[in-house]
Fold:
Amino acid sequence: MTTETYTPPPLPPPFHNTPSHQMHLITQGAEAHLYKTTYLSPSTPAALKIRPTKPYRHPILDRRLTRARVLQEARCLVRLVREGVNVPAVLAVDWDINNTNNNHNGGAGGGADDGRGNGAWILMEWIEGCVVRVVIQRWERYIKSRSASASGGSSGVGVGAKRQVDGEVKLQDNEIEEEEKKVKGLLRRVGAAVGALHKAGVVHGDLTTSNLILRGAEEPAAEGDGEGVSPDMQGEVVLIDFGLASQSIQDEDRAVDLYVLERAFGSTHPRTEPLFGEVLEGYRASYRGSGSVLKRLEDVRMRGRKRSMIG
Amino acid sequence: MISIGLESSANKLGVGIMVHPDDGKPPQVLANVRHTYVTPPGEGFLPKDTARHHRAWVVKLVKKALREAQISPKDVDCICFTKGPGMGAPLQSAAIAARMLSLLWGKELVGVNHCVGHIEMGRLITGATNPVVLYVSGGNTQVIAYSSQRYRIFGETLDIAVGNCLDRFARTLRISNDPAPGYNIEQLAKKGRKLVDLPYTVKGMDISMSGILAAIDGLAVQYGLDGDWNDDEDVANNASTSDDLENAKPTRADLCFSLQETVYSMLVEITERAMAHVGSKDVLIVGGVGCNERLQEMMGIMARDRGGTIHATDERFCIDNGIMIAQAGLLAYKSGSTTALKDSTCTQRFRTDDVFVKWRD
Structure:
């Protein structure tokens, strides 16, 4: 099979004239490219998520899916903002690039136009902060560096574990407890954020610690920056990336949402996994009806097919 | 070292012989013979009848394979058989044959996971070292990536396999099962032009196929396309070449085309998601549906856009065969695993990630 070189599609209007220093590619996921840009004034940052057309798909199918998904994402976000849930606000959306005006001509025109769209985009409020994944990973490294005992046998962050403190850098037991309290507080707020989302009638579909932002937390400027300092864990927890979200109030869907987060947590933060119960406690306290969801979660965990998947 | 592999998890009975030269040269295929139990149009294969077919053919095929490989039983180091997953009765027929050969020739047995067999054969033939694997066949649909001694399943079907969906739709349309229903759907789909609306059911990294089958079966009935073919069918097929696609009544070809486009898009999408997740650029397609050229084409476009490559094989290696069992079995045998006679059972459920892959780093 041949491998031709691929260049990403040019930015769609109205972004094609945006100077490149105001348009930074953040990530390229399976579905979309995420850019950081500005909105209205150069000092207002915004997140632009472009869903390019997928050339492998049949044009009509591609157009249908791209349109349905970007609209779904926008609708969920708008609903959540209205309900007061911490998510980025939608600034603008184009579900069918270059074709918004002649939408009613029918997709399957013959001739040169094979009915393929040009993708879609959604422009959102920029959330300044640091993803929870990075915060927790920094915290785990900090604890590890400060609690490694002389025997080197530090396993996990067990509460009240006896440690040999033979240097200033090592943390005392009560300090470790303080540190754990801090991360437990963060995890509870994560649970509360997910609870608020579910209460508003939306399930996320792809909850991971990468899709949670701690607003205001400082992003480490470079690799290894901010090491040796316990990361700040103040600030609101904001949910992002609603590309797989849907509107549902079913216990089943909500429980699967929590299960996905639990799996992702286990594979990303093995040292902090024992504290995941705090997320569920935060969730339990966040709205009426959380009890039956947590009960359902126990059933979801038992399912064989999913048991051996890794997240 | 030489191994002989017996494969019988579905309607194909395969016998293959592989050699791993002692001087470290690349492994070679010495023989790859297969016989397929083909049923009339509109019928699937039943376990009982399929097993009877396999029992009737297994001795003939083993003899033929030995002749082709120009070896005698005493050259063989181990006898590999499919332990699962698959249909119970057909699996048993080859397991019995393998036990018999083991006792007759005094050779060790190695039970092999069918899915791992596909993956190892695909890796050997294409030279792909560590790809994301899409395994698509009549009984299995999985997206797999290797990580620390296991082939991990990242996404899979929540109900029926993609090949099963295609085969059953072929039955609805009374499409021939010779050489394979999926192959005939592929040929018919090349004539299709109109895309009918079908459910598109990707759930995270998993997919669901049963609703799509129900939907397209419903459409076939609605347009009177189920059941036997009429003589004027060709005329009806040509009608769809008119320019008014929008209002034209779909033909059998259009339905096959739509089904393929929809389910293959879903497969490519979950594969892409797994590739983004594990950060791999290469993709390997294995299993019977993997020799579909449209699926290979779509996957190729996706891989190209991610700066990677697609690895696929043809029907000799994609469709169930004996050499893949011989290959995976020999790898296990060389790393020291064998199956004792009393453990040489087979099982219908045997997950890919249950196998401890001792032979990879």
Notes: Residues 130-314 of chain B form a domain with the Nucleotidyltransferase; domain 5 fold (CATH 3.30.420.40). The mean pLDDT of chain B is 91. Chain B has two domains: 2-123+317-354, 130-314.
